[in-house]
Amino acid sequence: MRDFPRNLTLETGWMSGRSCSNGSEESWLGCSLVSRSLVVTFMLLLACAVVAGNFITVAVFLRTKESRTPQGYLKVSLALADLAVGLLVLPFSAYTEIALLGSASRPPWQPGYSATGGGALWQPCSLVGVVFAGCTFVSISTIFLLSVERGVAILRPLHKEVVITRRRTWLLILLSWFTSFLLATAPLLSSGHFSLEYSECSRMCNYALVAGAPPQSGGSILLLFPAFDFIILGATVIVNALSFRTICRYSERRKFLAELGNLPASLRPSSSDIKAAKTIGILTLVFTASFSPVAAFVLGNVMGYRWCSFSFFAFWVLASNSCCNVIIYSVRDQRFRKGLHQLFHKTPH
To answer: What is the pLDDT at residue 129?
Structure first.
């Protein structure tokens, strides 16, 4: 029987038994100054990209009156969740890695740190880890709400204004944030067997079993995370599939009538129809690719497997998704591009 790991990410990787000079574990990323500097550079560049992209997104939607719609509010909620990751989660990981570069000892908040005297230090991961998990759940639930909003507009266009109102949208956004952060704190609130620690494998704050906790003490509760993600993602796929099917049928009918001459050629499938279909396909592909590695990693850890090196790939692919949201939901939006132009090219009065 496999031993359940104490720290769900601080485990022996594929290069078992090797460690860096400061006591941290070596993985395929290596311990050399060059390799660790490249990792820090990647973290800083990603943080800058996430912050800049989502800050611009929020500014455009707040300054453009045409964007103050239910869909616009959902996009702002999505951008705020990604912005929180870029402002807090990614910089903290970069700061920790820089601290490890400049010192042969562990930072005070990292597992394994020891010092004489003084009381217990506050663990920054108690905040950073919850923010990362909570904002991840906010993102996937907001994507589902965006898909529902688009589905109602396509399947029931005459009922859109009645079903999707600003008040209902705001209530759903608040419910999404509350539920997401409640779920993010579930392992901590359900028992005293879990804590949040900075992992030398994933280079992020992750959930871990506290010292002395029995190996079988509720590790399966972490399966709530991938279960929640894939239930919402599965519902999103279903809604998108129905919308995509309706778009295809409508486009085929318009094309058939245009070829018969009953409708002018201008009423053939428009570029917006094609772009909507492509956006749905990109939506499914990107989010499946982003969440699947983390889900596989969590499932493997609960089963007792130790995937240190893989954890870095899994969690940072998920973090990189914060940039993809801006591209998928904003850059491809014509109204966003118009608002972006107005933001940087103010017309004189």
So the answer is: 92
Beta bridge partners of 196: 207
Distance CA(157)–CA(199), nearest Å, equals 48
- Sequence-distant (≥ 6) Cβ neighbours of residue 46 within 8 angstroms: 86, 90, 316, 319, 320, 323
Answer whether 139's CB lies under 8 Å from 82's CB.
yes
* Contact yes or no for 154/247 (Cβ under 8 A): yes
pLDDT along the chain (349 residues), means of 10: 40 39 51 81 94 90 80 89 94 90 66 47 84 92 87 77 87 95 88 81 84 61 82 87 79 63 47 57 76 84 78 90 76 75 66
Which residues partner with 25 through β-bridges? 19
- Tell me, what's the pLDDT at 114? 44
Tokens standing for residue 168? 């209902």
Backbone φ, ψ for residue 314 (5° rounding):
-65, -50
Q: Which two tokens stand for residue 91?
A: 């910089």
Which residues touch 341 (CB under 8 Å, ≥6 apart)? none
**Polymer length in residues for the chain:** 349
How much is the pLDDT for 117?
A: 41
State both tokens at 313: 């790939």
pLDDT at 91: 95
The span from the CA of 7 to the CA of 260, in Å, is: 67
**CA torsion, points 330, 335, 340, 345, in degrees to nearest 10?**
170
Widest pairwise Cα distance in the chain: 87
Q: What is the pLDDT of residue 173?
A: 96
| CB 89 within 8 Å of CB 44 | no
Residue ranges of E strands in the chain: 194-198, 205-209
Q: Is 105 exposed, middle or buried (0-12, 13-18, 19+ CB in 10 A)?
A: middle
Rounded distance, CA 317 to CA 313, Å?
A: 6
